[in-house]
Design goal:
Layout (H helix, E strand, L loop, with lengths): L19 H13 L2 E5 L6 H12 L7 E5 L10 H7 L10 H12 L5 E5 L5 H14 L4 E6 L9 E4 L23 H4 L4 H13 L10 H10 L4 H9 L6 H7 L3 H4 L13 H11 L2 H10 L8 H8 L8 H9 L4 E5 L2 E5 L2 H9 L7 E2 L9 E2 L6 H5 L12 H7 L2 H11 L4 H8 L3 H14 L8 H11 L3
Parallel strand pairs: 1-4, 1-5, 2-3, 3-4
Antiparallel strand pairs: 6-7, 8-9
Helix pairs in contact: 1-2, 3-4, 4-5, 7-8, 7-9, 8-10, 13-15, 13-16, 18-22, 19-21, 20-21
Amino acid sequence: MQPRRPGYLASDITPLIGRAADVTEGVRLLGETRLLTVMGPPGVGKSRVGAQIARLSGRRFPDGVWQIELSSVPAGSCPAPHIASALGLGEGSPGARDTEVGRVVSALRGQRALLLLDTCEHVVDGVALLAESLLRRAPRVRVLATSRRPLNVPGERLLAVPPLSLPDPEPPIRQGRAARAGDPGLSGMSAPAVQLFAERAAAADPGFALTPGVLPVVTAICRRLDGVPLAIELAAARLRSLSVQELLEWLAEPFEVLSGSRSMLSRHRDMRSAIEWSHALCDPERRDLWAALSALDAPFDLEAVESVWSPVAAGPAAGPLAGLVDESVVLREPGESGVLYRLPYLHAEFARRAGGALPHIVPSPRPGADVRVAASALTRSDLAVPAPEPAPEPPSADAAAAALSPRELQVAVLITKGMTNREIAVQLGIAKRTVDAHVRNILTKGSLASRTQVASWVAVQRQCVDV
């Protein structure tokens, strides 16, 4: 029995911004392989990238392109009956997994068609079984999947969809220097993350305009949201009732702000739901590492990962870390001396709010790593039971006035604004290793356990020193 209709592919409602290179690469890969999986973290836009790849590849498939959304299929179940129904094959035998897979394969055998299976991560085993069967028994069919994790099927190619590009950090402001058209502060308007925010903001507030005066605040919002399109869209929609400055301030409690319309899929109605979906798919060991990594200042290296993991588990961190990378929870990026890792800000905030007490952080002697967790400070129970971080003893007025150098005080103030060491280095026009040293000095002089305690100490310093 063949499909009753020649395919289905949903139309885009809003423009796809900043994904031309990803889509072009996806079209190329789909021309070379019969199974392509579009991967990325929650909210990054995998579904839209996959749909656009399918749309531009449609002419290759005269028997149709079938887009089938799998989010409604129960986790761990076989998606073949749902796929058969979407193809118009009617009802099959409930519970007969092999029979349902066979019905889909038989219907598509001989067809020159593309099957776009959207949102596969929670039914990855069933999708993998179907995809492998199609590759073996329906040689003219190609499968395009979107998933937070790979299918791990022979012949699979992966297309990683990263967050949208952000503007480069602005250089230090020099007195008397006028802004020019080529300056990073103005060229930041062309960054895809900023363009997306501006487009969605104008839809929410017709009076919104992306001016050079507004750009720094918009850039800070997009940077806080790691360039994740769904988060940016949800934030921009809040401009119906907030100013951009108020929105940035509200993002101190991101999950209270980042919620959407009822027309969205349930996992996309708010960022908490999108991230909870990933959290539910992780095994306990990966969840523990996720919680531990929320203490680190990204990007971090494998040594920093081991420092937060060794107090929690006897084994090495490489296994669960690889699992979190496969789940698109932790992102890999190249570093000057090897691979670095990043836990996105919202994932870290989710872990902190999910009941994971942060470990105590002490200065790290390693260049390139901002923090290290003391081995004696973190236990498995710390990750499960909230334990409020003790506030530091306030220094005396005289001690506070003398404790920090002017440059260290500058760094401390920027830490309270949520900036990473790399961003502080760019802002002040100094080397990152110099910032690393300043941060270690700040923590040591203030007898502070973490960067989160710097804010309260700066408040004391502001009472004692003219900042």
